Amino acid sequence: MTLDDHLFFNGRSAVDGEPVVPPLRMDGYAELIRRFGRKLIEDDDDITRLRAHLERRESQLGGPVGIAPEDPTQAGWGVVFAKGEAPDVRDALSPLIAHRERQVRHGHFHVLEYDGEDWVTWLNKYGAGTGSWNPKRVPFYLLIVGDPETIPFSFSQPLSRGYCIGRLSFPTAREYGIYAENVIACEEGQVPRRARRVDFFATRHDFDEATQLSADYLVGPLAEAIEEEYEVPTTVIGGQKASRNALVQLLGQDAAILFTATHGLGFRGHPHQ
Q: Model pTM greater than 0.70?
């Protein structure tokens, strides 16, 4: 890649069909980094805190000895509610919470609360630090409940540096309840197992460099690698065959994983968003 090459981004405007982010030359991208990169680093509180942490050369100790981080029953599981979360949301998730409590080692299960703190203050509130995790205080696996306005990404993203973070956000308590029921049913074997197959859906247009790149350099090689290295059969729907009806049919199939590479839809601040 040279400075004359372009970067192409997925995403089309719902208003005029133009790219949400126009193609950008590499030299233009380099200029953006020079112009804004230093300011972002200087202004970002998390980066400032991380730099201070590295300068102190504190050890990143990981988890306790004898605790396997890949095993949630040992590493712990916790759910994070925003302070003042609606009681019906908590009630809707209570079956899943009770289900997890039965699975996890005693003392490694916690129901936690977010009250507007930054991630470091929040960890300190529960007696945990940024250099290691302790499931008796804050579990390694955390389910955050709420949209980004209630519990912002500025809290969850830095927290994910040392913890496995998931987020659950639905408009109503009923949908939280359906989610909880489905997870429990799946884990208890009440849902038929899906086929050991990966389906790929990738649009590719002659006039559109972004989908050409994602189809040729992402989906194609990925499907080949999965078949060769993991001996898992794949189905690839691409090019002119990648229609809306084809995607609807794939959604009704029994593959274990459906991987799609297409444009997203953006509004660029339009009031219809």
A: no
